[in-house]
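Its record is set out here:
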Amino acid sequence: MSKPRVLQAGRVYPPSVGGVEQVMQLLSEQLSDVCDTEVLVANSRNQTVSEIYNGIHVVRAANMKTVWRMPIALPYFKLFKEMAQDKDIVQLHYPYPIGEAAYLISGYRGKLFVWWHGEIVRQRLVLPLYRPLVKAVLDRADGIMVASEQQIESSQF
């Protein structure tokens, strides 16, 4: 029996440092024993790079500009569609509006899981525009993972 194929899609990945990056790396590396796992994230530079990082295939989409800590990586849309098409599972790491939008327009219809890393806090002025996108993704999700019960209780979603 073949291994399930998984795409981990988010904003950033190691060697960038942070909590989301650590979760994505741990999941990807641990899943690699039982799944064929690939990662799609934004690059810190305006160049798309495909590499093997600690045994995981990582594609970093060219970042044109960063606005409010969000990489505007337009190649992400095409790359998401290409990489997701043969996957059994896509796991989105929220929040990353480019990732959520790429999922919605990709036509992907396999299993979707969302890892909820936290609420939008600093950029809450754009939340009214972002809310329909988030709701559409969550409505299609087969599962939503959170780190704590408090995240569930305090989330407006």
In short: Strands lie at 5-9, 36-42, 49-53, 56-61, 65-67, 70-72, 89-94, 111-116, 143-145. The chain has a mean pLDDT of 88. The longest strand covers residues 36-42.
